[in-house]
Amino acid sequence: MLQKLRDISELQIERLKFKPVLPDVLKNNVRLVKPIKGRRTRSVADQSEVKGFFKNTYGLPVVTFKKGRNINVKKKPVKVAVVFSGGQAPGGHNVIFGLFDGLKKANEDHVLIGYLGGFAGILDNKYKEISKKFLNEYRNTGGFDYIKSSRAKIETFAQFGAIKDNLEMCKVDALVVVGGDDSNTSAAMIAEYLKQENIDKCIVGIPKTIDGDLKNQFIETSFGFDTATKIYSELVGNICRDANSSQKYWHFIRLMGRKASHIALEVGFKTQPNVVLIGEEILAKNMTLANVVEYIADVVVRRSLAGKNFGVVLVPEGVIEFIPEIKELIFALNDVLADNAEIVASILSTEEKTKFICGKLSSNMSDLIMGLPHEIALQFMLDRDPHGNVALSSIETEKLLIGMVYKKLEKLKKEKRYTGKFSTISHFLGYEGRCGIPSNFDANYSYALGYNAALLVLNGFTGYMSYVKNLTKSPKQWECGGIPLTMMIDIEKRLGKEKPVIRKTLVNLNGKSFKEFAKKRNMWAIGENYVFPGPIQYFGPASITEMTTKTLQYEHVVKK
């Protein structure tokens, strides 16, 4: 069969042969897997407000699957739909693979369809039936290309109504949403809407994001994080070795992680560069941009005094959003540009636009933006996102820091406190990590999440997220079940309105992994403790092929 496939790489041929390992509890016939309900749950915050949004699905119990007779599981054939939503993450195809196998093992007449292109596919009623041929071509592969994805959002009553109508038109009994915090918030709201309309359909979420910010005591990590950080770590390790070989460049590497610094922390552990910025720490310490620049410059000077005019700096993509004064600047710029949109649009000269905008800011904010490198200052003032706000994702933070560290070092040179060289190279590692062939861990984990979601559907649980935990143990020992989506939700103000949103999980500064990092970073700063992890290992001893993330290892002690 493999010879008949479209042209694929030799590695992919081997990956198609890999058989994910199921947790023991899921290996039984579905009628021998019993859901055990725990106590009622509460939302992570804003309990009364969240309950007001989710009158029918709030306070559901956590569900744990155990071995035992189950007479309530659905016996009649069901039709289940799956949809990818948001950015890609390695392991998505294995979620579908697991969902398919879980349904077919229970009843060969169960049907699985995939909506095409994210939530837009549901609204447009575009889908395909998933068959065994899919398994032969896509198991253990990266990307979301089988059914595609999009960032289409579900926010209006008209959209909820359209989803309800299309699910009914296609006679879909359950919808599995594979996505991050926003996508799973939409899943929670769809589940609530259908309950309110007395429509008996199951909505189940799957935790997906390479950013690692969708987690709690049950969701120990989201699928894709392990693979993405291993890909980034290979590249960063290569750069570390290059830096140590030529010993003449400072490399500033921006990594994915808009709202949290989990990727930077994990890649830091895997490669041990000289500086790793953690946005959450910057916020907790109320550091200014100048403080961050001084911190990096101090490491540069200390290394220079030791004759080392080279090094590696890791910068989380969203680090500037954690700097209080930059947040204040962003809010001020958004207000000025919103209040003066027509005037700003009418000014043709970039110089005159800058002068006008700065004239509308307070003196502190004006001084701050004029102190930025010119190109970065223009990005803050003139680049807008679709909502008219500062386009933070396009700001090249690594270049901002390079420019400001350079200025700081020039000042130190004039003061005779620094005599070294500061030659730099900037990098952004982003999309390189999103569609890689999943590691063995992610191949197993995403398959188990999908298979487990099939059991949640067949037991009639709606408004739940599939969880698989105890991930530092062998896959056979993983525990499975479902947690209510409402348990992860709090209230945020978005575009002037209070909305329920699954709370992003930031790096815990009191957690074991950050404390371990804090112990080691001073040693990393001065020495060449670089680690070169190399490419993802798919074959070989279990010690390297089934390695979990460093953060999981620190946070969850393996119990013998």
Report the CATH topology name of the largest domain: Rossmann fold
Q: Distance between termini?
A: 41 Å
Biggest β-sheet, characterized?
Answer: 9 strands, mixed
Q: Beta-sheet strand percentage?
A: 15-25%
Judging by the overall fold, what is the CATH architecture of the largest domain? 3-Layer(aba) Sandwich
Report the count of strand segments. 15
Count of helical stretches: 21
The CATH class designation of the largest domain is Alpha Beta
Mean residue pLDDT: 93
Order of strands side by side in the largest beta sheet? Answer: 1-2-13-12-7-6-3-4-5
Question: What structural class do you assign from the helix and strand content?
Answer: alpha/beta
Oligomer state of the chains in this structure? single chain
Radius of gyration: 25 Å
Number of domains: 2
Approximately how much helix is present in the residues?
40-55%
Q: What is the 3D form?
A: globular
Concise account of the structure shown:
The chain has 560 residues and is of the alpha/beta class. The protein contains 21 helices and 15 strands. The chain folds into two domains: 22-224 and 438-494, Rossmann fold (3-Layer(aba) Sandwich), CATH 3.40.50.450; 226-434 and 512-554, Phosphofructokinase domain (Rossmann fold, 3-Layer(aba) Sandwich).
Describe the structure.
The chain has 21 helices and 15 strands. The radius of gyration is 25 Å and the shape is globular. The protein has two domains: 22-224 and 438-494, 3-Layer(aba) Sandwich (Rossmann fold); 226-434 and 512-554, Phosphofructokinase domain (Rossmann fold). It has 560 residues and is of the alpha/beta class. Strands 1-2-13-12-7-6-3-4-5 form a nine-stranded mixed β-sheet, with helices on both faces. The longest helix is centred in the middle third of the chain and has 22 residues, at 225-246. The chain has helices spanning 10-17, 47-53, 92-106, 119-123, 132-138, 157-169, 181-196, 225-246, 262-271, 279-284, 289-305, 324-339, 341-346, 350-360, 363-370, 374-382, 397-414, 440-458, 512-526, 542-545, 550-555; strands spanning 33-40, 61-67, 79-84, 111-115, 127-129, 174-179, 202-207, 250-255, 275-276, 311-316, 424-429, 464-469, 479-484, 489-494, 497-502. The mean pLDDT is 93.
